[in-house]
Amino acid sequence: MKCFVTGANGYIGRSLLKRLVQQHHQVIGLLHKTIPRQKENGVTYLQGNVAEPESFRSFLKDCDVVFHCAAKVSDYGSKKEFYDVNVLGTKKLVEACMKYDIGQFIYLSHLPYETSNRPSLYSKTKQIAESQILKMYRKTGFPSTIIRPGNVFGPGDATWVTVPVDAINKKRLLLIDNGQGIFLHTYIENLLDALMLCIYEPESIGEIIIITDGDNSISWGTYFNDLATILEKGPLQRSIPKFTAKLVGACMIKLLPPLGITPWISPLAVDILTNKNTYTLEETKNIIDYEPKIKYSEAMEHIATWIKNEYMIKK
Q1: pTM of the model
Q2: Which of 227, 247, 259, 302 is deepest in the core (most CB within 10 A)?
């Protein structure tokens, strides 16, 4: 198959390129600005902006599958930044795909976490993009599939591996509500298995599909302490209440970015780390016959090996 991947330099995008090449697909990867340090052999790389598809539109011709992984993924930023990429960019990419009659459009979204009536700009714009895609499917039959993964993690991931690892090493990681929130872990290889199933399963067209490892029993406290064990650190004991974390996060988001300082917590992060939602895979299995192959314990073994043999040595 001829496959086009946006967000080719993100964690999911890079991993997806590698899997597609391994399975002998013809692969085109769209980068925004940053050139990857290590390019994947067998991938044609392009630089462009999803909101300006004129520069790469012709490469969509004869594509069997377009994986839309690119997004403005951040806990903070201007409303315009989020809308330009997540809403307008998706809309224009869909229009370009329709022009060339692509076989399937797979959109990487996310599971909602917020418990308030005011979702983050990231969540809000992803929801709008989902609605646009579903509307186009119902109106024209546009062959689209929406994937909602949980917390994607694995060797090489920054968000849920290297960032907390660095925080643990610097003794800066605090639990929220004693780490009792549910970690909806989604190992990267399991997610890639699901994406591969989608491109061969016509029943996935027009569906919203939830992908996790199917295990709602691991708390964030358990996960972060497992990372601490890998690092040969003592158990994490410092914790702050959710209310306090939300208040601190809201203040940081408002005050620090204008000073060029990255906030260490945000209201969205607090919602994720105190998540109480659980998800089953029953409906997912009915659509694509998905069964996560790598369980949490094995995933942590892979992560431990990567941290010890690659990440900590480079540090």
Answers
A1: 0.94
A2: 227
